[in-house]
UniProtKB/TrEMBL annotation:
This is P-type Zn(2+) transporter. Signal peptide: none annotated. It is an enzyme of class 7 (translocase). Coiled coil: none annotated. It is found in: Cell membrane; Membrane. The lineage of its organism: Bacteria, Pseudomonadati, Atribacterota, Atribacteria, Atribacterales. Keywords: ATP-binding, Cell membrane, Membrane, Metal-binding, Nucleotide-binding, Transmembrane, Transmembrane helix. It comes from Thermatribacter velox. The chain crosses the membrane at residues 29-54, 193-212, 224-256, 529-547, 553-572. It catalyses: Zn(2+)(in) + ATP + H2O = Zn(2+)(out) + ADP + phosphate + H(+).
Length: 580
């Protein structure tokens, strides 16, 4: 008896506490009833064995769950503990929560960056893996944005804070991970409801099995009581109750480690069944900044001469296109530039050296009466150049594609997902970007309400749909979609609040990763349901038929619980399969 109470004390204590709290039909209650019943019929060895092996199984399960929780713990450890604030030449150490926007911060080698900010001085390699999952250190220098939780590996950095701690990426990550468990997937809610009905039903079946057959003269009371105890041990629902939420917990934690923030397991579940993915263009698949695609000169001008004139004149303009050209080529002061005049909606003109230069759109050429080929007029994203009222050539610009945007679309296509591009840009620009990415379906010239209408009426009718955007104008579509995804740390607060998933680093490849994680979690969940219910059903039949003992029953119960937990842990295998 002493061995029984030593091995079974934790289980018996939890069962009594559950009864006190009116939680009558949990796994501890079932194990306690089964083993006390074994003691009653004199099966002391089996009672001790059940308690011993059940306790060992619980311990092994706890180890597995602890490993699953290590991801969230690593995120907690990445939270900065202090900030070095420079004010009036004095260095003060304060909690990150006290840092104000605009404060100057000093981050030494080995310290975590306390809040999101812009590097003002210094160069260093930083470890971004706690937030983005990117194992390779990233070089940062003045002008580069850094996030709270990044670990400074080498030099000293001076950083200007751009966010309060509560608005930083890592603070949002922790808040979303903590809240994720409150929003459960349908299968989790089903298992919880199922366990509430299943467990009392099994107890009633065991009572019926222990009483009715002996009264009907089909065997002794002790025989059927023993079979009822076997049924109670086998029917314990802990394998399902543990492994199903655990699979979602691991999936959400693993995703968070890679900079993918699911606001609840129901978002993970919905993403597993996605049929259509709709991308906004600017800031989502593209950088939202112009780049020079092509330079085409017209004889007698040469390419270098054309560029010299353009970049000297454009250096006097604040227009985004002008800044893109100047930043791409960074001119040296070779010519004097005088008589500069901005022409609203058309371009800019001035005297570069001793030559009159006009840089602008097709309307500017027509205004000046400068002859040029018709096919040149129709090119999208073109800046035309005229020198001394003669057409000198053009520079074609376009929005730069984000890193891995092409790979993302390619992999989504391989998964059989239909991809759509919605943009407010011109049809010509949309067609060019869609062609580069390999997207067959695109809509151009859209207002926010147009995106909402097309998404609802044309795309969502074809199946579960995810919408990916970054701006406040995308918030209605993000909210409307079956799964709304806000991409990038620069996402508007409206987009982040309405989204089901947030991608921290702005890499569109994370969309593919999110769907892969969601599909694996769903597959593992279904495997566990089939595994657990299948094995339990077989042993229940064997137990009632007299083909198994209470020893085999406890092995079946503990064993299937461990198998389901181990099966759940294979979600970690995606670490090797997902490239960044």
């Amino acid at each position: 008896m002493g061995a029984y109470f030593i091995a079974g004390y934790p289980v018996l204590y939890k069962a009594v506490r559950g009864l006190w709290r009116r939680q009558w039909f949990d796994e501890n209650f079932l194990m306690s009833i089964a083993t006390l019943g074994a003691l009653y019929i004199g099966a002391l060895t089996e009672a001790v064995g059940v308690m011993l092996f059940y306790s060992i199984g619980e311990y092994l399960q706890d180890l597995s769950v602890d490993r699953a929780r290590s991801t969230v713990r690593s995120l907690l450890e990445a939270q900065p503990r202090f900030a070095n604030v420079l004010k009036d030449g004095i260095l003060r150490v304060v909690p990150p929560q006290e840092v104000e926007v605009g404060d100057l911060l000093l981050v030494r080698a080995g310290e975590a960056i306390p809040v999101d900010g812009i590097v003002l001085e210094g160069e260093s390699l930083v470890d971004a893996s706690p937030l983005t999952g990117e194992p390779k250190p990233v070089m940062v220098r003045p002008g580069v944005k850094v996030l709270a939780g990044f670990l400074n590996r080498e030099g000293v950095l001076k950083i200007q804070a751009t966010e309060k701690y509560k608005d930083t990426s890592i603070s949002r990550i922790m808040e979303l991970v903590e809240r994720a468990s409150e929003r459960k997937a349908r299968v989790e809610r089903f298992i919880t409801a199922f366990a509430r009905i299943y467990t009392p039903s099994v107890v009633l079946l065991a009572v019926f099995l222990a009483v009715f057959p002996p009264l009907a003269g089909w065997g002794s009371f002790s025989l059927w009581f023993y079979k009822a105890l076997i049924l109670l041990v086998i029917s314990c629902p802990c394998a399902l109750v543990l492994s199903i939420p655990l699979s979602y917990f691991i999936g959400i934690g693993f995703a968070a480690k890679r900079g993918l923030l699911f606001k609840g397991s129901q978002s993970l579940d919905a993403l597993a069944g996605i049929k259509n993915v709709v991308f906004d263009k600017t800031g989502t698949l593209t950088e939202g900044s112009f780049r020079v695609r092509e330079i085409k000169e017209e004889p007698p001008f040469d390419r270098e001469e054309l560029l010299e004139y353009v970049i000297h004149l454009e250096s006097f303009s604040n227009h985004p296109i002008a800044r893109s050209i100047v930043e791409a080529y960074k001119p040296e002061a070779k010519y004097s530039v005088v008589q500069v005049q901005e022409i609203p909606g058309m371009g800019i003109r001035g005297v570069v050296g001793k030559r009159a230069v006009h840089v602008g759109n097709d309307d500017l050429l027509h205004k000046m009466g400068i002859r040029h080929r018709n096919e040149v007029c129709k090119l999208p994203g073109v800046v035309h150049v005229a020198v001394d009222e003669k057409y000198a050539g053009y520079i074609e610009l376009g929005d730069a594609l984000k890193h891995q945007a092409i790979d993302t679309v390619k992999e989504l296509n391989k998964m059989g997902i239909q991809i759509y591009l919605l943009t407010g840009d011109s049809a010509e620009e949309a067609a060019k970007i869609a062609g580069e990415l390999g997207i067959k379906h695109f809509y151009a010239g859209l207002l926010p309400e147009d995106k909402f209408r097309i998404l609802r009426e044309e795309v969502m009718a074809k199946g579960l749909t995810a919408f990916i955007g970054d701006g406040i104008n995308d918030a209605p579509a993000i909210a409307q979609a079956d799964v709304g995804i806000a991409i990038g740390n620069s996402s508007s607060h409206a987009a982040i609040e309405t989204a089901d998933v947030v991608i921290v680093d702005g890499n569109p490849w994370r969309v593919y990763e999110a769907i892969k994680i969601a599909k694996l979690v769903r597959r593992v969940t279904l495997e566990n349901i089939v595994l657990v219910l299948g094995i339990k059903a077989i042993f229940m039949v064997l137990g009632i038929a007299g083909g198994t003992s209470i020893w085999e029953a406890v092995f079946a119960d503990v064993g299937v619980a461990l198998l389901s937990v181990l099966n759940t842990l294979k979600i970690w295998s995606l670490r090797k399969k997902l490239s960044t």
